[in-house]
Amino acid sequence: MSYASRDNIDLDVLDRIDAAFESGGGTVAAFNAETEPGTVVTGPIAGVAMRQSRDFKTGDPAFWPDGKPKNEVVVRVETDHGERAVYIPTWGRAKQALSEAVGEAGLSKVSDALRPGNVLSVRFNGKKDAVHPRSKEQYSYRDYEYRVATSGSDNPFAAQSAAGWK
Q1: What is the DSSP letter of 4?
Q2: Of 158, 153, 154, 72, nearest in space to 122 by CA
Q3: What 3-state DSSP class applies to 13?
Q4: Residues 6+ apart with CB under 8 A from 30
Q5: What is the pLDDT confidence band of residue 59, given thresholds at 50, 70 and 90?
Q6: 69-78 per-position pLDDT tens digit
Q7: Which of 107, 116, 128, 152 is the most buried (most CB within 10 A)?
């Protein structure tokens, strides 16, 4: 797509272009395989994007059995150690946990909670075991908790350490 004027700009396309140039050398992930349970990352949101998630084993784009892409939200958070990326799947436990945090913040939409300037806190609770409800197969997942405070509000957890979580 070409742009004939500054008024004819598809911002979504520009965000996808930025994401393409950031891949491979972008923001450091807030959590990785060595992250200890109880680790908390907190800071103002610097930016947010939606992208197709990747298959952990192959690195290929991830799809649902019906062929639709699996998506995740990538939230860039400013921390004392620089900008960090938090990856939040748009399905399952992560979706439920983020939705609960949005409600607890007194908001009704995730898009309101993840606006730049708001504060996001994420706690890694460790790996958990579960059984798939239909296939009955056992699996492990990484459990996270989320909290959100809007910019300009009193932020009861912005400086909170891991010890401050219930």
Answers
A1: S
A2: 158
A3: helix
A4: 41, 77, 79, 84, 85, 86, 122
A5: confident
A6: 999 999 999 9
A7: 107
| Token code pair at residue 39 | 């680790």
Those residues whose C-beta lies under 8 Å from the C-beta of residue 28, and which sit 6 or more positions away, are 82, 83, 84, 85
Cα(72)–Cα(88) distance, integer angstroms = 5
DSSP letter for each residue of 22-35: HTTTSSEES--TTP
pLDDT digit string, tens, across residues 62-113: 999 999 999 999 999 999 889 999 999 999 999 999 999 999 999 999 999 9
State how beta strands 138-149 and 82-89 pair. Answer: unpaired
Between CA 90 and CA 53 the distance in angstroms is: 10
Q: CA 37, 39, 45, 49: dihedral to nearest 10 degrees?
A: -30
* Furthest-apart CA atoms within the chain: distance in Å: 56
Rounded alpha-carbon distances, angstroms, from residue 162 to 31, 84, 125, 159: 14, 17, 10, 10
The whole-model pTM stands at 0.76
